[in-house]
Structures are given as structure tokens and as C-alpha cells.
Write a structure and sequence with these properties.
This protein is α+β, with helices and mostly antiparallel strands and 147 residues long. It contains 5 helices and 8 strands.
Length: 147
């Protein structure tokens, strides 16, 4: 139990080896609990996930920033030994940590980002190098929680 607490604290500090150890400890046990899919592009005209905010560049100019994610990401949580009695409701939630998604993006990257109508749009088709990095971070930092 003490090792789990230690690994969890390291995971909070984004330690990749600790995250891998936690994954390895629980992956087999968590198989088959659920698959949660974000909306597919066919479900509507807009992206599945949108994060809006602002970025103040090195010249102290603030730009609106919009992150659009519509690549049909699959979020998984698995469990081999879970019994859910018939009629029992389960609440699943996905915890997004947008700070963790963007923490590897440098000021230089955002300073040099292309704007569209004065907005920094980060998507598969606009500022795609930044998008790819953020999307990779999304994979590592998003949590699925079931209650």
C-alpha cells in the first residue's frame, strides 16, 4: 500500500516510469470495465472536445486560444473482476487536465503559432505540430473514473 501511495505521488508529478508501473499493476485487473468513446466526427459538425482560453505572448499581446480535438479518441478503463448487479447505475467520468496537456508547449511555439481571425486555433489542420504534442499529452494524462 505504501508503494502505491509513493507511485501515485510520483504520477501526480508526471513521472512517466511511475505511471507505467501503476498501469502495469492494474491493467490486467481493470480489463473489461468500460470503453468510453468521445463523439465521433459523424455525430455532429463540431469537434468532440473544445478547450478555450487565452495566451499572452512575449510582446504582452493576448490572443484567444482554441484547442479542437476531433480525432475519435478512445478512453479505456478495464477490469477483469468486476461484478455489477443488474439495475445498478454506474457513473463514469473523464477527468481532463488541460494544464498537463499544454505544459510541454513552449512560449516560443505559441508565439510562432498561426492565427486565424486573431485566434490561435490548435487542431489537426491548424498548428498541427502543437496539436500533435498536446494530443500525445492528452493520452498520458486523461483519467477515466467509475463510481
Amino acid at each position: 500500500m505504501r508503494e502505491i501511495k509513493y507511485l501515485t505521488e510520483k504520477c501526480i508529478r508526471n513521472d512517466r516510469s511511475a505511471q507505467e508501473k501503476i498501469y502495469r499493476l492494474y491493467a490486467d485487473k481493470m480489463y473489461n470495465v468500460a470503453l468510453i468513446y468521445t463523439k465521433d466526427n459523424d455525430d455532429g459538425p463540431g469537434p468532440s472536445i473544445v478547450i478555450e482560453g487565452s495566451y499572452t505572448n512575449s510582446d504582452n499581446v493576448t490572443f484567444p486560444l482554441r484547442f479542437e480535438f476531433d480525432s475519435g479518441e478512445v478512453f479505456e478503463a478495464n477490469a477483469a473482476i468486476v461484478e455489477i448487479p443488474e439495475g445498478t447505475d454506474i457513473i463514469g467520468k473523464i477527468v481532463f487536465d488541460a494544464y498537463a496537456w499544454f505544459k510541454t508547449i513552449s512560449a516560443t511555439q505559441l508565439d510562432n503559432a498561426k492565427t486565424t481571425d486573431g485566434i490561435i486555433i490548435i487542431s489537426e489542420t491548424s498548428n498541427s505540430a502543437i496539436f500533435d504534442e498536446v494530443a500525445d499529452n492528452l493520452d498520458y494524462t486523461t483519467q477515466a473514473i467509475f463510481e
